[in-house]
Structure prediction request, 106 residues.
Amino acid sequence: RDWPDARGVFVSGGKEDQGTGSMLCAWINEDEHLSLIVRQTGGGGISTSGVARHAFEQLCIAEHHLQAALQQQGRGFARSQRWGFITALPERLGTGLSVSVRLKLP
Prediction:
């Protein structure tokens, strides 16, 4: 068996090319307990900073909805006053944020 119990990947609404150019994924119990991933494609005259801004906005909206759903159940993300958000990977301690950008250069 290749995939352990309690792991999964959830992908929003299909392919990233369905008009918006973005895709949201939630990766459960891989490196972290939860990884929210936004993939945003550029083009069409949109600046690189505009693409990055839109991707970050989509991530913030998803996190806000997830946090609200957790609060309705009396739960939340693990957070320390001293260390910030508690993560499985020490290098992400604090914000829990990891950003990567891929560019196609001419």
User: Anything to note?
Assistant: The mean pLDDT is 82. The two ends are 43 Å apart (CA to CA). The first strand starts at residue 8 and ends at 11.
